Amino acid sequence: MQLERALDAYLRHVTIERGLSIHTVSAYRRDLGGYVEWLRAEGLTDSSEVMPVVIGRFIAERAGSVPAPAATSLARLQSSVRGWHRFLVREGIEADDPSGRLRPPKAPQRLPKALTIDQVERLLAAPSAEEPAGIRDRALLELLYATGARVSEAVGLDVDDLAHGDVLRLRGKGSKERIVPIGSYARAAVDAYLTRVRPQLAANGRASARLFLGLRGAPLSRQSAWLVIRSAAERAQITTEVSPHTLRHSFATHLLQGGADVRVVQELLGHASVATTQIYTHVSVDTLRDVYATSHPRAR
């Protein structure tokens, strides 16, 4: 099949049949679009012309580019290429999978960075309780820490997702839904925002069901939420790097430090596999090691 047609068929498949998020589909489109451009530059026009040696040369060139790509980016690229070729075989478009022997590089395991409880409290208290934007920002930050939601899940919330009292409905990767407790502090902050601020913001723009709105009434974007977090970190004088995922990491780490079962944390985070969640147990082990080293008389 002609390369562009084969790529379009795969993108339709992951969008419609697999229901992947717009961000995941965009990543596939970016990775595979570059792959198709490279194949065309090599003189290939049809997916049947792609051989294992061709894919190997493509990956080698990407791995050796300057600046060198991160191992995670290279692994994602290889996964995109494998997924596309497997799809073409599964759909009967091609007879053989030239990516069958392709193996992703082993990405270095990085422990997630979590804030201390004191830092979290300073971060949550940073937005002004007197300004509309500050009331909204505090509600967003409290909700992120109380639920462990991804920032995309938080900005994708509708007001109706709060209709269950002390629990919240989140839509995760692949449109999978999960129900998580929200906690009294976050619920109070969100209620204050809904009562005092959101009606004003909604009046500034078109009607929207989204929970968090910008100052002009449009749904709050992921980029705007990131700026909220960064601004709060600066006001709280937190010198370590604070990213949109920091509160999610802190949520998981503090739960495990408090004695929560790893499978409960897995359910709350929306991880498909407990192996993904277990990386947070290493953080707790590090904490135990530090406490032991400073407390036991014969630790050193």
* Major sheet size, sense and barrel closure: 2 strands, antiparallel
Number of strands: 2
Share of β-strand residues: under 5%
Number of helices in the DSSP assignment: 14
Helix content: 55-70%
- The best one-word shape is globular
Supply Rg.
23 Å
Unreliable stretches: none
The separation of the N and C termini measures 66 Å
Mean pLDDT: 87
Query: Largest beta sheet: what is the strand line-up?
Result: 1-2
Helix vs. strand class: mainly alpha
Order of helices and strands: HHHHHHHEEHHHHHHH
Q: What features would you highlight for this structure?
A:
mainly alpha, two-stranded antiparallel sheet, 300 residues, single chain
Question: What report would you give on this structure?
Answer:
With 300 residues, the protein is mostly helical. Helix content is 57%, strand content 3%. The chain has 14 helices and 2 strands. Strands 1-2 form a two-stranded antiparallel sheet. The mean pLDDT is 87.
